[in-house]
Protein backbone atom coordinates (compact mmCIF):
# COMPACT_ATOMS: atom_id res chain seq x y z
CA UNK A 1 0.00 0.00 0.00
CA UNK A 2 1.34 3.41 -0.89
CA UNK A 3 0.43 6.47 1.09
CA UNK A 4 1.39 10.11 0.64
CA UNK A 5 3.47 9.94 -2.55
CA UNK A 6 3.83 13.74 -2.61
CA UNK A 7 4.56 16.34 0.05
CA UNK A 8 1.33 17.34 1.77
CA UNK A 9 0.56 20.65 3.47
CA UNK A 10 -2.35 20.26 5.86
CA UNK A 11 -4.01 23.14 7.68
CA UNK A 12 -5.22 22.32 11.20
CA UNK A 13 -8.94 22.90 11.72
CA UNK A 14 -10.67 24.17 14.85
CA UNK A 15 -11.88 20.64 15.66
CA UNK A 16 -8.27 19.36 15.57
CA UNK A 17 -6.91 22.08 17.87
CA UNK A 18 -4.96 20.63 20.81
CA UNK A 19 -4.20 17.19 19.33
CA UNK A 20 -0.69 15.84 19.76
CA UNK A 21 1.12 15.88 16.42
CA UNK A 22 1.54 12.07 16.45
CA UNK A 23 -2.21 11.54 16.89
CA UNK A 24 -2.93 14.19 14.25
CA UNK A 25 -0.69 12.36 11.78
CA UNK A 26 -2.14 8.93 12.63
CA UNK A 27 -5.63 10.07 11.62
CA UNK A 28 -4.27 11.57 8.38
CA UNK A 29 -1.89 8.74 7.46
CA UNK A 30 -4.21 5.82 8.09
CA UNK A 31 -1.72 3.19 6.97
CA UNK A 32 1.28 4.49 8.88
CA UNK A 33 2.53 2.57 11.94
CA UNK A 34 3.41 4.57 15.07
CA UNK A 35 7.12 3.81 14.66
CA UNK A 36 7.19 5.48 11.24
CA UNK A 37 5.34 8.54 12.48
CA UNK A 38 7.74 9.00 15.41
CA UNK A 39 10.70 8.56 13.08
CA UNK A 40 9.66 11.23 10.57
CA UNK A 41 8.89 13.66 13.40
CA UNK A 42 12.22 12.96 15.14
CA UNK A 43 14.18 13.41 11.89
CA UNK A 44 12.53 16.77 11.23
CA UNK A 45 10.71 15.61 8.10
CA UNK A 46 7.44 16.83 9.59
CA UNK A 47 7.33 20.62 9.94
CA UNK A 48 4.74 22.88 11.51
CA UNK A 49 4.72 26.42 10.12
CA UNK A 50 8.11 25.55 8.52
CA UNK A 51 9.66 24.67 11.91
CA UNK A 52 10.77 21.38 13.44
CA UNK A 53 8.65 20.09 16.32
CA UNK A 54 8.73 17.28 18.88
CA UNK A 55 6.37 14.33 19.12
CA UNK A 56 4.50 15.88 22.06
CA UNK A 57 3.77 19.14 20.19
CA UNK A 58 0.06 19.99 20.20
CA UNK A 59 -1.23 21.44 16.97
CA UNK A 60 -3.05 24.76 16.97
CA UNK A 61 -5.95 25.81 14.75
CA UNK A 62 -4.45 27.41 11.65
CA UNK A 63 -1.11 25.58 11.85
CA UNK A 64 0.20 24.34 8.51
CA UNK A 65 1.70 20.86 8.84
CA UNK A 66 4.17 19.63 6.21
CA UNK A 67 4.02 15.85 5.74
CA UNK A 68 6.79 14.22 3.68
CA UNK A 69 6.16 11.65 0.93
CA UNK A 70 5.72 8.19 2.44
CA UNK A 71 5.73 4.74 0.92
CA UNK A 72 4.46 2.00 3.20
CA UNK A 73 5.42 -1.61 2.70
CA UNK A 74 2.35 -3.88 2.64
CA UNK A 75 3.45 -5.66 5.81
CA UNK A 76 3.69 -2.38 7.79
CA UNK A 77 0.45 -0.82 6.59
CA UNK A 78 -2.71 -0.90 8.63
CA UNK A 79 -5.09 -3.32 6.96
CA UNK A 80 -8.20 -2.04 5.24
CA UNK A 81 -11.34 -2.96 7.15
CA UNK A 82 -13.32 -5.69 5.40
CA UNK A 83 -16.83 -4.96 4.22
CA UNK A 84 -18.24 -7.29 6.88
CA UNK A 85 -16.28 -5.51 9.65
CA UNK A 86 -17.37 -2.10 8.36
CA UNK A 87 -21.01 -3.18 8.37
CA UNK A 88 -20.67 -4.75 11.82
CA UNK A 89 -19.21 -1.58 13.35
CA UNK A 90 -21.58 0.75 11.52
CA UNK A 91 -24.47 -1.19 13.07
CA UNK A 92 -22.91 -1.38 16.53
CA UNK A 93 -23.35 2.24 17.65
CA UNK A 94 -25.39 2.15 20.87
CA UNK A 95 -25.80 5.89 21.41
CA UNK A 96 -24.10 8.96 19.95
CA UNK A 97 -23.81 12.62 20.91
CA UNK A 98 -22.08 15.61 19.27
CA UNK A 99 -18.86 14.95 21.22
CA UNK A 100 -18.82 11.19 21.86
CA UNK A 101 -20.18 7.84 20.80
CA UNK A 102 -20.66 4.48 22.51
CA UNK A 103 -20.22 1.32 20.47
CA UNK A 104 -21.16 -2.27 21.31
CA UNK A 105 -17.69 -3.74 20.81
CA UNK A 106 -17.68 -7.25 19.32
CA UNK A 107 -15.81 -10.00 21.16
CA UNK A 108 -12.56 -11.08 19.51
CA UNK A 109 -11.68 -7.63 18.15
CA UNK A 110 -8.75 -5.80 19.77
CA UNK A 111 -9.37 -2.11 20.44
CA UNK A 112 -5.98 -1.24 18.86
CA UNK A 113 -3.86 -2.77 16.12
CA UNK A 114 -0.28 -3.82 16.94
CA UNK A 115 1.64 -6.89 18.14
CA UNK A 116 0.62 -8.88 15.09
CA UNK A 117 -2.88 -7.37 14.94
CA UNK A 118 -3.05 -5.46 11.66
CA UNK A 119 -6.30 -3.71 12.43
CA UNK A 120 -8.15 -2.96 15.64
CA UNK A 121 -11.52 -1.42 16.40
CA UNK A 122 -10.26 2.16 16.47
CA UNK A 123 -8.47 1.87 13.11
CA UNK A 124 -11.49 0.22 11.50
CA UNK A 125 -13.94 2.72 12.99
CA UNK A 126 -11.89 5.63 11.66
CA UNK A 127 -12.28 4.11 8.20
CA UNK A 128 -16.03 3.72 8.72
CA UNK A 129 -16.49 7.24 10.15
CA UNK A 130 -14.58 9.31 7.64
CA UNK A 131 -16.88 12.21 8.55
CA UNK A 132 -14.93 12.63 11.82
CA UNK A 133 -11.58 14.42 11.96
CA UNK A 134 -10.94 13.11 15.47
CA UNK A 135 -11.82 9.79 17.07
CA UNK A 136 -10.04 8.38 20.14
CA UNK A 137 -10.72 5.71 22.75
CA UNK A 138 -11.65 7.01 26.20
CA UNK A 139 -11.02 3.61 27.82
CA UNK A 140 -10.33 0.03 26.71
CA UNK A 141 -11.91 -3.38 26.81
CA UNK A 142 -10.03 -6.68 26.61
CA UNK A 143 -9.98 -8.22 23.16
CA UNK A 144 -12.38 -11.01 24.16
CA UNK A 145 -14.78 -8.75 26.08
CA UNK A 146 -17.83 -7.30 24.33
CA UNK A 147 -20.06 -4.36 25.16
CA UNK A 148 -20.05 -0.63 25.86
CA UNK A 149 -16.94 1.18 24.66
CA UNK A 150 -16.75 4.98 24.80
CA UNK A 151 -14.97 7.12 22.21
CA UNK A 152 -14.43 10.88 22.04
CA UNK A 153 -15.02 12.93 18.87
CA UNK A 154 -12.83 15.89 19.81
CA UNK A 155 -9.83 16.67 22.00
CA UNK A 156 -11.74 18.66 24.64
CA UNK A 157 -14.20 15.83 25.20
CA UNK A 158 -11.41 13.27 25.40
CA UNK A 159 -9.70 15.25 28.17
CA UNK A 160 -13.01 15.78 30.02
CA UNK A 161 -14.00 12.11 29.82
CA UNK A 162 -10.51 10.94 30.82
CA UNK A 163 -10.79 13.15 33.89
CA UNK A 164 -14.21 11.69 34.74
CA UNK A 165 -12.77 8.19 34.38
CA UNK A 166 -9.79 9.00 36.60
CA UNK A 167 -12.04 10.60 39.24
CA UNK A 168 -14.36 7.56 39.19
CA UNK A 169 -17.32 9.54 37.90
CA UNK A 170 -17.94 6.85 35.31
CA UNK A 171 -19.90 3.70 36.20
CA UNK A 172 -19.40 0.42 34.32
CA UNK A 173 -21.61 -2.60 34.73
CA UNK A 174 -20.65 -6.02 33.37
CA UNK A 175 -22.37 -9.38 33.01
CA UNK A 176 -20.23 -12.48 33.55
CA UNK A 177 -21.02 -16.18 33.60
CA UNK A 178 -18.93 -17.90 36.25
CA UNK A 179 -18.23 -21.47 37.29
CA UNK A 180 -20.21 -22.88 40.22
CA UNK A 181 -22.63 -21.17 42.56
CA UNK A 182 -21.55 -17.68 43.55
CA UNK A 183 -22.55 -17.14 47.21
CA UNK A 184 -25.17 -14.42 47.49
CA UNK A 185 -23.43 -13.01 50.58
CA UNK A 186 -20.18 -12.37 48.71
CA UNK A 187 -20.75 -8.93 47.25
CA UNK A 188 -17.16 -7.65 47.08
CA UNK A 189 -13.77 -9.03 46.16
CA UNK A 190 -10.79 -6.99 47.32
CA UNK A 191 -7.39 -8.30 46.29
CA UNK A 192 -4.24 -6.49 45.20
CA UNK A 193 -3.31 -7.15 41.58
CA UNK A 194 0.12 -7.28 39.97
CA UNK A 195 0.99 -7.52 36.27
CA UNK A 196 3.71 -9.97 35.29
CA UNK A 197 5.35 -11.57 32.25
CA UNK A 198 3.93 -15.05 31.66
CA UNK A 199 7.18 -16.12 29.97
CA UNK A 200 6.10 -16.06 26.33
CA UNK A 201 5.95 -12.29 26.06
CA UNK A 202 2.33 -12.32 27.23
CA UNK A 203 1.38 -10.02 30.08
CA UNK A 204 -0.92 -11.43 32.73
CA UNK A 205 -2.24 -10.40 36.12
CA UNK A 206 -2.16 -12.21 39.48
CA UNK A 207 -3.17 -11.56 43.07
CA UNK A 208 -0.13 -10.38 45.01
CA UNK A 209 0.25 -8.52 48.29
CA UNK A 210 2.68 -6.13 46.58
CA UNK A 211 0.24 -5.30 43.78
CA UNK A 212 -2.13 -2.38 43.33
CA UNK A 213 -5.24 -2.04 45.48
CA UNK A 214 -8.18 -3.44 43.48
CA UNK A 215 -11.83 -3.92 44.31
CA UNK A 216 -14.80 -5.34 42.38
CA UNK A 217 -18.44 -5.35 43.42
CA UNK A 218 -20.36 -8.53 42.51
CA UNK A 219 -24.08 -9.35 42.64
CA UNK A 220 -25.87 -12.57 41.68
CA UNK A 221 -28.16 -11.98 38.70
CA UNK A 222 -29.33 -15.55 38.06
CA UNK A 223 -28.34 -18.94 39.45
CA UNK A 224 -28.23 -22.08 37.28
CA UNK A 225 -27.48 -25.71 38.19
CA UNK A 226 -23.73 -25.48 37.53
CA UNK A 227 -22.97 -21.84 36.75
CA UNK A 228 -23.98 -18.36 37.92
CA UNK A 229 -24.71 -15.17 36.00
CA UNK A 230 -23.27 -12.28 38.00
CA UNK A 231 -23.18 -8.53 37.66
CA UNK A 232 -19.72 -7.08 38.19
CA UNK A 233 -18.82 -3.45 38.80
CA UNK A 234 -15.10 -2.63 38.94
CA UNK A 235 -14.55 -0.03 41.66
CA UNK A 236 -10.97 0.29 40.45
CA UNK A 237 -9.89 -0.14 36.85
CA UNK A 238 -7.05 -2.66 36.72
CA UNK A 239 -6.17 -4.84 33.74
CA UNK A 240 -8.21 -8.11 33.71
CA UNK A 241 -9.59 -7.14 37.12
CA UNK A 242 -12.99 -8.85 36.94
CA UNK A 243 -11.50 -12.04 35.50
CA UNK A 244 -8.75 -12.34 38.11
CA UNK A 245 -10.98 -11.39 41.05
CA UNK A 246 -13.60 -13.97 40.03
CA UNK A 247 -10.95 -16.68 39.72
CA UNK A 248 -9.48 -15.64 43.07
CA UNK A 249 -12.93 -16.08 44.63
CA UNK A 250 -13.04 -19.65 43.27
CA UNK A 251 -15.48 -18.90 40.45
CA UNK A 252 -13.52 -18.26 37.24
CA UNK A 253 -15.31 -16.91 34.18
CA UNK A 254 -16.44 -19.41 31.56
CA UNK A 255 -14.52 -19.19 28.30
CA UNK A 256 -11.49 -17.60 29.99
CA UNK A 257 -8.38 -19.11 28.42
CA UNK A 258 -6.06 -17.11 30.70
CA UNK A 259 -7.53 -17.46 34.18
CA UNK A 260 -10.11 -20.22 33.76
CA UNK A 261 -10.07 -23.82 35.01
CA UNK A 262 -10.39 -27.26 33.41
CA UNK A 263 -13.85 -27.63 34.93
CA UNK A 264 -14.85 -24.24 33.57
CA UNK A 265 -13.62 -25.24 30.11
CA UNK A 266 -15.75 -28.40 30.29
CA UNK A 267 -18.83 -26.38 31.34
CA UNK A 268 -18.22 -23.90 28.50
CA UNK A 269 -18.09 -26.74 25.97
CA UNK A 270 -21.29 -28.28 27.37
CA UNK A 271 -23.05 -24.91 26.93
CA UNK A 272 -21.51 -24.45 23.47
CA UNK A 273 -19.83 -21.24 24.60
CA UNK A 274 -16.97 -20.38 22.24
CA UNK A 275 -15.83 -17.05 23.74
CA UNK A 276 -15.21 -15.33 27.06
CA UNK A 277 -18.53 -14.64 28.78
CA UNK A 278 -17.82 -11.09 29.87
CA UNK A 279 -19.96 -8.26 28.53
CA UNK A 280 -19.90 -4.55 29.37
CA UNK A 281 -23.67 -4.17 29.67
CA UNK A 282 -23.99 -0.59 30.93
CA UNK A 283 -21.94 2.59 31.00
CA UNK A 284 -22.86 5.85 32.70
CA UNK A 285 -20.72 8.96 32.19
CA UNK A 286 -21.08 12.77 32.46
CA UNK A 287 -21.63 14.58 29.16
CA UNK A 288 -18.49 16.69 28.55
CA UNK A 289 -20.50 19.81 27.72
CA UNK A 290 -23.48 19.69 30.08
CA UNK A 291 -22.24 17.42 32.88
CA UNK A 292 -25.54 15.54 32.75
CA UNK A 293 -25.30 11.74 33.12
CA UNK A 294 -25.50 9.75 29.92
CA UNK A 295 -26.63 6.13 30.25
CA UNK A 296 -25.69 3.58 27.59
CA UNK A 297 -26.73 -0.06 27.43
CA UNK A 298 -25.36 -2.66 25.01
CA UNK A 299 -27.56 -5.75 24.63
CA UNK A 300 -26.07 -9.24 24.83
CA UNK A 301 -25.33 -10.79 21.46
CA UNK A 302 -27.77 -13.60 20.49
CA UNK A 303 -25.07 -16.26 20.96
CA UNK A 304 -24.70 -15.38 24.66
CA UNK A 305 -28.48 -15.31 25.14
CA UNK A 306 -28.60 -18.86 23.74
CA UNK A 307 -25.87 -19.94 26.19
CA UNK A 308 -28.02 -18.63 29.06
CA UNK A 309 -31.04 -20.54 27.73
CA UNK A 310 -29.01 -23.74 27.71
CA UNK A 311 -27.78 -23.02 31.26
CA UNK A 312 -31.39 -22.61 32.43
CA UNK A 313 -32.15 -26.07 31.14
CA UNK A 314 -29.10 -27.63 32.74
CA UNK A 315 -26.91 -27.50 29.60
Description:
The protein is an alpha+beta fold. The chain is built from eight helices and 18 strands. Strands 7, 8, 9, 10, 11, 12, 15, 16, 17 and 18 form a ten-stranded mixed β-sheet that branches. Helix 3 (83-90) crosses helix 4 (121-128). It is elongated, with a radius of gyration of 22 Å. The N and C termini lie far apart (49 Å).
Keywords:
single chain; 315 residues; alpha+beta; 10-stranded mixed β-sheet; 4-stranded antiparallel β-sheet; 8 helices; 18 strands; elongated
Q: In brief, what are we looking at here?
A:
By secondary structure, this protein is of the alpha+beta class. The chain contains eight helices and 18 strands.
Spell out the blueprint of helices and strands.
Layout: E1 2-3, E2 8-11, H1 21-28, H2 34-42, E3 47-48, E4 51-52, E5 64-67, E6 70-71, H3 83-90, E7 93-96, E8 100-105, H4 121-128, E9 136-137, E10 146-152, H5 155-166, E11 171-179, E12 188-190, E13 193-197, E14 203-207, E15 215-223, E16 227-234, H6 241-248, H7 262-270, E17 278-286, E18 293-297, H8 302-312
Parallel strand pairs: 10-17
Antiparallel strand pairs: 1-6, 2-5, 3-4, 3-5, 7-8, 8-10, 9-10, 11-16, 11-17, 12-15, 13-14, 15-16, 17-18
Helix pairs in contact: 3-4
Work out the strand percent: 25-35%
Order of helices and strands: EEHHEEEEHEEHEEHEEEEEEHHEEH
- Average pLDDT, rounded to a whole number, is 89
Which class best fits the helix and strand makeup?
alpha+beta
How is the main sheet built? 10 strands, mixed
Identify low-pLDDT runs: none
Based on Cα principal axes, name the global outline: elongated
Rg of Cα set:
22 Å
Q: What is the first-to-last residue Cα distance?
A: 49 Å
How many beta strands in the DSSP annotation? 18
Summed up, the helix count is 8
Helix content: 10-25%
Amino acid sequence: MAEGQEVQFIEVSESQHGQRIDNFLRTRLKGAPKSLIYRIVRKGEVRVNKKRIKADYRVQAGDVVRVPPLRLAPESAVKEASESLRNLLAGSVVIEGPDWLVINKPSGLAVHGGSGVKIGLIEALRQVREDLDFLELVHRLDRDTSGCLLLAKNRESLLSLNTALRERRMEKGYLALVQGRWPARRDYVSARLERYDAGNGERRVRVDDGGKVSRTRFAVRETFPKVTLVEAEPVTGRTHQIRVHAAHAGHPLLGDDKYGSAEGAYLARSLRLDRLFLHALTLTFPDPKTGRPVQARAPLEPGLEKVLERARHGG
